[in-house]
Amino acid sequence: MQHIVEALKDKYLYQDQVIKSTNNIPEFQIFFNDHVTNDFNTLFRSLPIDRSYYAFGAPGSFHDRLFPSRSIHFAHSSSAIHWLSKIPKELLDKKSPAWNKGLIHYVGASNIEVVNAYVAQFEKDMEMFFKARAEKIVTGGMMVFISPFSCYIRLMGFFGSTLMDLMNEGKLDESLVDSFNLPMYFPSPQDMTKVVEKNGCFSIEMMELMINLRTSLEGLLINHFGSKIAEEACARTILKSEEISAWMKVNYEKPSILFAALKNK
């Protein structure tokens, strides 16, 4: 947000030079959003001391409305929209065609019903997301987001194989692994274009794939398996470094971040 505010200030300064005016730079008010369980105190302590904006916290799910109508000019979502609002219920139903036994994600699923369940939940969530953003962003306002892409999908497979190793060694109950599914869907540009066009509230100003690599799963593992298993699972996955390194040497230049800039109609 510091970079975004500085870029906007530079634009206003340039406009002032062109039209020979002064004091045209507005004040900036930034709302940081996360779930109510987030440690907002840590967030506020990490803010730059010399920041040129006023900071506020807005607890709540980003899938819902958070602000009054037409109150936001610019929205930025950083590595968040790939998180689903919930696990598709079909994945946990043993009688469902989408029963995801032995897997923690749609990664490696031979059953198309598993993938379809994730896609359906993603599309429902994004409809809520875009509807909420369209109501709070001013007409002509912008929304920019980045979301993990394909390379992250392979990393989910590495974590899944580690949990299966622990299960085969008798350290984890099979039913516990079967009941764990990652609430993530990594959209492709085609996926994102489809949900934006279906919603109809935004126009796509730019969409491209970028290169980056970052992941954090420890919190999910602790919640489901406990801290001891989570710690061992992370440690064991690191031990697969040769396999991961070999994969990364082949894939490190492949795009891993989806970038999109949308304008509210």
What does it look like?
With 265 residues, the protein is of the alpha/beta class. It has a single domain (61-264), classed as Vaccinia Virus protein VP39 (Rossmann fold, 3-Layer(aba) Sandwich). The chain is 44% helix and 18% strand. The protein is built from nine helices and six strands. It has helices spanning 2-19, 40-46, 112-136, 150-168, 174-178, 189-199, 218-225, 227-239, 241-251; strands spanning 29-34, 54-59, 72-78, 137-148, 202-210, 257-264. It has a four-stranded mixed β-sheet with strand order 3-4-6-5. A two-stranded parallel ribbon has the order 1-2. Helix 7 (218-225) packs across helix 8 (227-239). The longest helix is centred in the middle third of the chain and has 25 residues, at 112-136. It starts with a helix and ends with a strand. The model has no long low-confidence stretch (mean pLDDT 85). GO terms for molecular function: methyltransferase activity. Pfam families: Methyltransf_7. Belongs to the methyltransferase superfamily. Type-7 methyltransferase family. This is S-adenosylmethionine-dependent methyltransferase.
